[in-house]
Structure to design on (373 residues):
């Protein structure tokens, strides 16, 4: 039997939705950080931890083993304890990590604008809100045809940077029209980043004096990730070495450590808290700690280091403990982040500003051709 030729009315009713008319395409930058609960409450922390710890990039234990343990043991026991810790660092504006990331995005847009780049800068969280998918949707729906994904992680790790790439890829799978995408994977040895760190530390020392010892504490990961080829350990080591050179520190004046252990597996060593205790027992009266791997102050810096680390050092016999804040929205750091972003935007049309009349004519032509108003 011959196939039925659709009537014109059938074809009309089966037409796909018309794409919206846009004033003109633009380039965007999405600054992605790890994430934070919406509130310092057990329920909000449970939602956040469930998303974070269910990511196979973060916990590589087989799903059939890990998920029952996560939902049956970890979340019921850890949510309330973590919420109490978050409550000690929460600000009237909200989570410190979210506050600083938002300010970084705003200041980055300002810096890029001052250097002639007409781009839109937004921020998102890998876990929690605003999500990567929701911010990518907003940018793409508004007309972004090119999006640079800028991670807040100076050192690359499969547990962080690659997880952001996963989230972007998952978002792209659900989109018919996918913008051009680029990723900033690392800047652990970027000169501007290192100089911003060094100046921040030197500024702290001018105000408070120099310590007997400087500890550079990075977030830990299981040691097996190093043997499986993750470059994170090597990049942390390089950051530490280059930073010590800029500060002109002799080898016995600083130590690089790893914090935030979780579970019973062996993680990258040396561990931060035992190192602080050992320094106190060795007679170091004052220790300063800086966290170069964190671009924004958060639970891991303000509670784990500035509170728990301090208590551990003093309890072991130390006299003075100084935590040096993250770069946050430091002007020199924003300048460095802007230069990194500018480098990765190279080749994209970010500096041409279209005539408003031309943009309006383009929109009118699109509407005449069937685009939604």
């Amino acid at each position: 039997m011959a196939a039925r030729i659709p009537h014109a009315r059938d074809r009309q009713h089966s037409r796909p939705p018309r794409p919206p008319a846009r004033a003109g395409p633009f380039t965007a930058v999405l600054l992605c950080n790890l994430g934070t609960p919406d509130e310092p409450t057990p329920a909000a922390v449970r939602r956040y931890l469930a998303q974070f710890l269910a990511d196979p990039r973060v916990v590589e234990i087989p799903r059939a083993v890990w998920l029952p343990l996560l939902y049956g043991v970890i979340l019921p026991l850890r949510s309330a304890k973590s919420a109490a810790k978050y409550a000690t660092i929460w600000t009237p504006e909200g989570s410190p990590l979210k506050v600083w990331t938002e300010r970084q995005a705003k200041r980055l847009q300002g810096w890029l604008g001052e250097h002639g780049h007409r781009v839109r800068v937004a921020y998102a969280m890998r876990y929690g809100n605003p999500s990567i998918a929701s911010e990518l949707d907003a940018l793409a729906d508004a007309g972004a045809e090119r999006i640079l994904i800028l991670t807040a992680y100076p050192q690359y790790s499969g547990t962080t940077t690659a997880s952001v790439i996963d989230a972007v890829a998952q978002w792209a799978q659900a989109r018919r029209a996918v913008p051009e995408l680029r990723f900033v994977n690392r800047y652990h040895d970027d000169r501007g980043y290192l100089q911003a760190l060094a100046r921040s530390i030197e500024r702290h020392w001018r105000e408070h004096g120099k310590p007997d010892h400087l500890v550079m504490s990075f977030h830990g990961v299981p040691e097996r990730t190093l043997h499986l080829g993750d470059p994170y350990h090597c990049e942390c080591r390089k950051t530490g070495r280059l930073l010590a050179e800029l500060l002109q520190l002799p080898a016995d004046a600083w130590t690089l450590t790893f914090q935030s252990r979780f579970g019973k597996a062996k993680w990258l060593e040396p561990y931060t808290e035992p190192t602080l205790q050992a320094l106190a027992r060795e007679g170091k009266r004052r220790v300063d700690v800086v966290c170069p791997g964190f671009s924004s102050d958060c639970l891991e810096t303000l509670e784990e280091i500035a509170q728990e680390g301090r208590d551990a050092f003093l309890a072991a016999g130390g006299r003075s403990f100084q935590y040096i804040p993250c770069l946050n929205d430091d002007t020199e750091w924003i300048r460095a982040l802007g230069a990194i972003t500018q480098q990765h935007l190279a080749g994209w049309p970010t500096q041409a500003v279209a005539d408003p009349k031309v943009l309006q004519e383009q929109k009118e032509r699109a509407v005449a051709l069937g685009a939604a108003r």
Q: What stands out?
A: The first strand starts at residue 26 and ends at 36. The longest helix spans residues 63-89.
